[in-house]
Design a protein that fits this description.
11 helices; alpha/beta; 4-stranded parallel sheet
Length: 330
């Protein structure tokens, strides 16, 4: 999965998207100007690759790539605060936000948003912070499950991130190599719980963290056979898609060159690797994949969006709810 530079698809980018080793495209804020422009861009993309998996980060709060013409979504922490006093109302609101987010993206033929965040807010991580639903594993599990149910209702698969939990480390894996020094028992007792709960309820995909859990394994989770095969596939019984986090992030640098990062992520159990915001690195990985001849993962087809009925009345009510929650979060 790679990205493109701007608001339209260039001839060179169209040729790259036509390569069989490319299975996905992730959109960023620079790729969005207006609903009309997005519709035209998606028509260009689908003309080249109708089967391409198109993704975006549209969590809400700080992480919402498409804003003008889309409903402003609150940070998920507002639902955690509501859950403390009115759990049933918070769960209903979470489901509606998941449905709203997915419904608006599905109107433009975008397959997935990489959501929900399953990290716990330990009050330590600035890069996670209010992206997390709550500090308590039970609250995160219930609220995220409701959000996922709303996404599913709108025809969108859900991706839980960042396995096995990014909330404890202070360093930002975009810029640094975070190390979580806790023992497995501590991680399993808290951070792993939302992942286990959502897997049992049909979570479609997971994105591992570029975090080293030094007391457990020397490799960051996204390059770790222990975390992806033994824990995620084995102990937790997960058979969904594993997306690497972006291989250009500093947290991935310990895995070597970009081709080496690709090999290590795929060998550890990832189904698809992301290479974003570094076109030269994406071309390098693409050339490497041509030579390496990795088979495409049969799981990836499950992530394509499904048709769903979108009620205008429900959309209006969900947008009103989102507005109220944004005011509450301010």
């Amino acid at each position: 999965m790679l990205d493109i530079a701007g608001l339209t698809l260039s001839a060179e980018e169209a040729a790259v998207l036509g390569e069989p080793e490319v299975g996905g495209l992730i959109l960023f804020s620079r790729n969005y100007e207006s609903p009309e422009q997005l519709r035209a861009l998606m028509a260009q993309i689908r003309a080249v690759r109708p089967d391409l998996l198109v993704a975006v980060d549209q969590e809400g709060g700080r992480v919402q790539r498409m804003r003008t013409g889309f409903t402003r979504l609150p940070p998920m922490a507002v639902l955690g605060r509501r859950w403390q006093q009115h759990p049933e109302a918070a769960l209903a609101a979470s489901r509606e936000l998941g449905w709203l987010m997915a419904s608006e993206l599905r109107a433009f033929d975008i397959d997935i948003s990489f959501a929900p965040v399953l990290d716990l807010d330990w009050g330590r991580s600035g890069v996670i912070g209010n992206r997390a639903f709550a500090a308590e594993a039970q609250a995160v599990s219930q609220l995220a499950a409701a959000f996922m149910a709303g996404m599913h209702e709108a025809g969108m698969a859900a991706t839980g991130k960042h396995f096995p939990g990014h909330g404890w480390v202070e360093a930002d894996s975009h810029l640094d190599i975070p190390v979580d020094e806790r023992a497995l028992e501590q991680v399993a007792a808290a951070d792993l719980q939302p992942f286990a709960q959502l897997i049992a309820q049909g979570l479609d995909a997971i994105m591992p963290a570029h975090v080293i859990y030094s007391a457990i394994d020397a490799a960051p989770a996204g390059f770790s056979d222990y975390w992806l095969r033994q824990q995620l596939r084995g102990r937790l019984g997960f058979d969904g898609v594993i997306f690497s986090d972006d291989l250009t992030m500093e947290g991935a640098s310990v895995a070597g060159t970009f081709p080496q990062r690709c090999d290590r992520a795929l060998a550890a159990g990832c189904d698809m690797v992301l290479v974003c915001n570094r076109p030269a690195a994406a071309r390098e990985v693409l050339a490497h994949l041509r030579r390496a001849d990795y088979p495409a993962s049969p799981r990836l087809g499950r992530m394509r969006a499904r048709a769903a009925d979108i009620s205008p009345e429900r959309l209006a009510a969900a947008r009103t709810l989102a507005g109220r929650l944004c005011e509450e979060a301010a």
